[in-house]
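User: Predict the structure for this protein chain, please.
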Amino acid sequence: MAARAITLFVNGQKQVLSNLSGDTTLLDYLRSSNVQLTGTKLGCGEGGCGACSVSASKWDANDQQVKHFAVNACLVPVLSLDGHAITTVEGLGTTKQIHAVQEKIAAAHGSQCGYCTPGIVMALNSYLHSHPNATQQEVEDSFDGNLCRCTGYRPIIEAARELNASVIAEQPGKELPFPEELKSFTPEELEVDADGVKWFRPLSLGRMVAIKAQHPEAKVSVGSTELTIEVKFKTIRYPTYISPMAVPELNGISLTESGISVGAAVPLNTLNKYLTSLSSELPEYQTRGYRAIIDQLRWFAGNQVRNMACLGGNIATASPISDVVPLLIATGSTITVQSTAGERVVAINKDFFKGYRQIALSPDEVIVNVHIPFTREHEYVRAFKQARRRDDDIAIVSAGMRVLLAPAASPSEYPTVKEASLGFGGMAPYTVHAASTSAALVGKEWNDACLYEALRNLETELPLPLDAPGGMINFRSTLSTSFFFKFHQFVLREMGGNVDKRLHSVLDPYPHRPESTGKQEFFTKESNYPVGEPVTHLSAYKQVTGEATYTDDLVLPPGSLHAYFVYSSRAHAKIVSIDASEALAIEGVVDFISAKDIPGKNQVGPVFKDDELFATEEVQFVGDAIGLVVASDPKIAERASVLVKVVYEDLPAILTIPEAIEKQSFHLPDPLSIERGDIATAFDTCDHIVEGEMEVGGQEHFYLETHVSHVYPGEEDEMTIVASTQDPSATQGMVSQVLGIDSNRVVAKAKRLGGGFGGKESRSCYISCAAAVAAKKLRRPVRLALDRDDDMLMTGGRHAFLGKYKVGFNKDGKLQALDLKLYNQAGYSFDLSKAVMERALLHAENNYFIPNVRVQGWLCKTNTATNTAYRGFGGPQSMMICETWMDQVAHASGLEKNEVRRMNMYEEGQDTYYGQVLAKHDVTASRCWDELMTKSRYTEREELVRQFNAENRYKKRGIYMLPTKFGMSFTVKFLNQASALVHIYTDGTVLVSHGGTEMGQGLHTKMAQVAARALGCPLNDVHIAETATDKIPNASPTAASVSSDLNGGAVLDACEQLNERLRELREANPGKELRELAHIAWMNQIDLSAHGYFSRPNIGYDFVKNVGTPFAYHVTGAVCSEVEVDCLTGDFQVLKTDIVMDVGDSLSPAIDIGQIEGAFVQGMGWSTIEQVVYNEKTGAIVTRGPGNYKIPGFKDVPLEMNVHLLNDAPNPTVIHSSKGIGEPPFFLGAGVMFAIRQAIKDARAEVGAEDWFYLSSPATCEQIRMAAVDPLSIQFENNLGSPLSSDPEEL
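Assistant: Here is the predicted structure, written as structure tokens:
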């Protein structure tokens, strides 16, 4: 009789679980109301961010030891963990008994918003346990399965450096022991049938084959790293699963006479470890294929996925962009499969893949093992892969290549090809065996003629139609031949052939990434303590232990409901009908909420009320909200949402900026504009003019915590909202309008946000409004939390821009005139797009004085999600365009680019084109620039770059410096105000409430420092309350990087009031601390509560009259970045970045440096790898999760990153002479893109292409490769198959 329950331990507690569905993930279980281990976070639901990482441990009976490994809880089915011990971040340590890993990350300032932190803690701890002898380099490499959007990674890496096996061993009593009971655990056959899903775990191959025969539709689940994603994103449920984890034949590796036999269910990391060991034992030539697999596995997904994923799954899923399968083809590997009909061996070759996701196996066959043969003498194998991001990314093109050669008879001859096999992923709807090209190589000498014939044959054998899925047609074709060129030259070198030394640097497909380093320099003033001290983020220790509570961690009261959006599948269409009857028939579904259920106003918006909460007659974009399914369980609501039937009548859709310009589709009839001087005369009289266009792409916020809102109805129309929002006051106001009730009945709260970056300023209000409508109608609490893919579909991001410029300058390089037309992709409604464009217009010159200027801006109305606030708010896009034309000016003038920039920088007393006279504290960019030139050793390194580029043909380096100047204030006058409440209790402790929200930027920490300094009490005695509208009304959004300025001013005002009340008491009691004075004050009837207020009455700008003072001050800085680019693939690596930043007298240096580093990495991502892609036909966003949208990872940060805070640069306009910092450093990340551009420039010079060239942002690997023109890229230019030169010297 098969067992019906499983046994596992969670944080040392035994759990016997039955009646669990086979598709219930470990994350579902841990975060369920019965368990409530909410330290493990839901970040993406597809194993791409690592926020859900936990440690799994099991007893290895063969080795008689415990094996520890990190897993993605969002992917792993609970039923697959029978006999395991699971440790979550709560089980590792607490704030009262903290673990070394947790303590080091907190102390190193490695946690900002903290949402990703528990996953990073658990992944690191698991790795250290399983690799006790790991080097610091290996520890750094292990982070490839985790993402962080806030920190820039550097402090986390530094913390990890201080950890090793000895540190972990010094944790007596701090780690849960492995349960003794599990050391004798013996799996039983398991059969569970729950919630419509069957789960089988056989103990023998024969039993597994019998089950597969009975259930040929069954999915074989090892780690479910692919299956869970399919269930989620295809909204399907597989009825039957078979786990092979207890079948011996599928879980071992054995050595045979001809190679190795790998069980189909062996985890990839286990295989990697085995191959690494074997490669050190056998002769080098025998393991070349294995070494290629080891190389490829380095870049296969993340560490957590490799701990669970297996070769059998990789083969069975038949992905057309597999990393490993092309290598199996190349090495001549075979698989053994079994069914009730018997066993057979199948070759992985051109006949194996029958079509998209189709292989030459029958449904009842089971893959038992994979046989990978040894390589022979004179046989060479190489793996290749190019992806958007180097680690944990799906390949654009992958390849495995093998050749067996007969050595040359004499030094003057070439070796001859005896065998060849080339496999490619990403070149067809399935993995391709380039059999014709492989066959044509046989018998040929391995020389240039062979190379050129193979390149032509690959072009013919691997054709990509112009409409091939995945796009990037020319790039993918170019990669296929570039990979072979690398392989050919590599083999020639290994055989002792003559290979140009200038090619050697690109012959290794995976450049070694050394251990990263960094340095931070800042200055403190003891007299200001604790202001100006590098204190730890107040929530850091709660975040590393999982004790920090986020909105969706809150325990919902009994009877609470869960909502899920029903949204449009069309870009623009009339709604003919909506039928929710099928969804309402599902057990557990309570209601379908739509526009007809709104008691107040359906027309909403942060400024213009031009948006519908729920679409009524028309949908305006793919993702437009039509309604909500409300159910007793979130999974039920999600499944039922797809059953709501909507009938559409399609309407014409506008999807891009060029389309909007062509059809004059703008939100405003006239452009916004700023003018100064006489540009017509200036253009007539200047020496030179350059003109051009620059496209700047959008960006997804990718905060690790998605939008979430909990709404609790009360009496007399009261509503309490707890939301992940940057603007509780706007949430309160919009909800009151939608519900048709007064604002005093609505309270909006925010404890902390798992990241925001502007994305939760206005769009979060819509989530709360939708949930509030359901809560009011049903009179029950309602939770609405967006999945990652829906969040990215519905809520918009950074505005894409198009800039058309004309610039006049004199022969000495001095700028004379700028005529700039800016277009932003606003989306279907206004949202904040007008304000975004206004800021773009105010940053069009970056940091350069231009006497004659006209800048105009149009808001393009498109049928895409409404774009919204994002760090920099339009400024970075405008500055990107500015630095592009500055580069063009330098090119056209023949002057050195740094010289041109420096001579045009603002000086004290000059006025901007918008009429603001710049003070000394506004023009520190030149100081930053000059210090950076020295600190970065720019001149010396530029010469070294020249030498490197002269010595290398296809590997090029670029070094580049950029300045930044960012205006600080809301440009709308009334937003520049803030309030605060400060209470001193009789025990002398202090409670501060202010209107800003904490989203990782350290605002609460800075406010506590300000209060502690003002009141003269220890920092630990100050507590910051959650942000709530019933404490601080009418607060401005936490945005524009001025929250410390405004709220700090309000907190200081309240503290000064209290100090004045306590003045006489302090004089009468000299030497007494606040803890003693407070009770005395209360006994003397002194009010110990104060309301503080701060405003900037003279800030604001009138865009109609072009008058005003938009900014209180400016933040400046400069960056120098050096990159190395592989011009054959578009891959790049940032070698070094130096930043000098003016933050005035920093309120909190460690927090400010964290903001600088995080902003830089985010800006680097925006300008290089983060590409927002829409389906050109449907208008749907394609990049809807970490699988398709790549933010920078641990291995993308500069190898060396140094941050220096400018000394002795006080800002007299702000509290404690400080400056805001959240947004200003963001643009510095674009320096990486301009450094890449410089490298490409040198690559183009190799073929005589020295004219100015266009490079849009982001500079993806596709753009880089195709801009670095050479005969291989020209071969596929415009997909015309241009003839490849037969001159070997050209390559």
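The radius of gyration is 31 Å.
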